[in-house]
Amino acid sequence: xxxxxxxxxxxxxxxxxxxxxxxxxxxxxxxxxxxxxxxxxxxxxxxxxxxxxxxxxxxxxxxxxxxxxxxxxxxxxxxxxxxxxxxxxxx
Length: 91
Prior knowledge:
This protein has helices spanning 3-7, 85-89, and strands at residues 11-15, 19-23, 25-31, 35-40, 43-58, 63-76. By secondary structure, it is mainly β. The mean pLDDT is 85. The radius of gyration is 13 Å and the shape is globular.
């Protein structure tokens, strides 16, 4: 398997609801201690929880790891609206 195809594999692994590893990450759109929003080839991924922090981020490898209490992980087909990081930034 080539390095490019390995980077694009979309895989999500959650350990004990305390650590998450996501392969296939293209960009991190925003993050704080309650949510991490990133993009992949399959769409936007939203991680919600508490005390979240990013442990490793390698966009070259397409890997993101985060720790904290993970409450939910979802794929979003459309951009999130109604606020968030960019709305706060451009007020």
